[in-house]
Amino acid sequence: MRHLLLIAMPLFALLLGAAAPAMEDSEKEIERYRAMIDDPMANPGYLAVDRGEQIWSLSRGTKSATLEACDLGQGPGVLDGAYARMPRYFADADQVMDLEQRLAYCMRSLQGLDLKDIVARRFGSPGKTSDMEDLVAFISNKSQGHKLAAPLAHPKEREMYAIGEAMFYRRSAINDFACATCHGEDGRRIRLQALPNLTRPSLQVQQVMGTWPAYRVSQSQTRTMQHRLWDCYRQMRMPPPDYLSEGLTALSVFLAHNGEGATINAPSIKR
Amino acid sequence: MIFLAALLAAPIASAQTISPADPATASPARVDAAIAATFAGAAVAWMPRVTQDETQRLCSLRRNEPTQAEADSIVARESATLVMPAETTVLGNWRNGEKIAQNGQGGQFSDAPGTVSGGNCYACHQMAPAEISYGTLGPTLAGYGRLHDFKPEAARAAYAKVYNPQSAFACSSMPRFGHNKILTEQQIKDIVAYLFAPDSPVNAP
């Protein structure tokens, strides 16, 4: 484990050093180092993968059970390619769920686990890891190389797509922002930060959706889409959206379909 | 849309058979319910940000392309909110205006209580040609005052536009800074000075 960090640290020093002057240059630098850092031996996101693997087979809760029988859509305990086919409808819960919602469901039903602590640690911070971020890193990594193909056949999946699309264009709060305000056109920037156009299927959206969860260099944490959307709602001057809430899954369904066909590379590494 | 149409046209070989013609729809009430569920944990003081006013509702529904009649109604409603400074000059201090244009703080749930909001103009607009860190969500404002011959009427129009851009242009992407009390009258005057003062870096060649 430690050798991994030793390799990673000098690279991050370089990467962060490069982020200071003109962004165009730093983007190139980041591209260059990203190629190296995508190496599993050097991406700290893989520490989360290792932790997630432990948590997956950890007995806990009132039922002293592991998560190993959790059905992520491909059958109990089947991890290969499961993340690439989410969010999806689950008949047992009669609900469309993203991976984190599904894990919470399994923690409750299979393990009898009190989710209070899990939710309190939903976003990791220095010295405090997140079981959810670790599990998502581990499980998404089991879809490495798979094509993103979240199903859109069930009426509830279609309804969630429609809700997600409406939410994407919904303007609100003191700045009147919608997701589309920042992610509605090609080639736009906020300050020097490039903004992907997320409105319709494109290679651009594939590149976005195939690379979450991601180790975020600026935060030194492995983050999931739940956190990314929470952060965008912060920029929209909205209140924090509830963790595992319906709207975040709806947005994820909308985005997943615009990124359909993406090759999963997770956890990746991002600014 | 094309994507969805193609998808809907394709036969669905799934156990959960649904009509291929079944569109992906959600009623406005269903969307509102999802929004309510998503922000159920928000503090009461923040709830007004979750609900929409009529302008936000209409612009969302039309994806910022209202009909002419709707656009007229929006411009009329938003114009009625304008509060112009009493004195004839709307030019404050451009040096303060520059700080406000650079300042992206305020209004976020991560901000400390009492944080003074900036205008964050540079997030979306080019302004002083010497500043290279600017966004491209809005048009360039480089040389703005010079290009308007430093005319007082143009400065007043700029004040109105910052106060409430939808008083001039329905469904503008720009925040209604004065109307929504993001910026004070003095802050807006300072920003207008940043645009219109002949010695402001915005008007440097």
Structure in words:
The complex is a heterodimer of chains A (271) and B (205). Chain A has 271 residues and is mainly α. Helix content of chain A is 45%, strand content 8%. Chain A contains eleven helices and seven strands. In chain A, helix 1 packs antiparallel against helix 2, helix 3 (45-56) packs across helix 6 and helix 7 (155-168) crosses helix 11 (246-258). The longest helix of chain A is centred in the N-terminal third of the chain and has 17 residues, at 2-18. Chain A is globular, with a radius of gyration of 18 Å. Chain B is built from eight helices and no strands. Helix content of chain B is 37%, strand content 0%. Chain B is mainly alpha-helical and 205 residues long. Chain B has helices at residues 2-9, 28-38, 54-61, 68-79, 94-102, 144-147, 152-163, 185-196. Chain B folds into two domains: 4-51, no CATH class; 94-203, Cytochrome c-like domain (Cytochrome Bc1 Complex, Chain D, domain 2), CATH 1.10.760. The interface between A and B is large, with 54 and 55 residues.
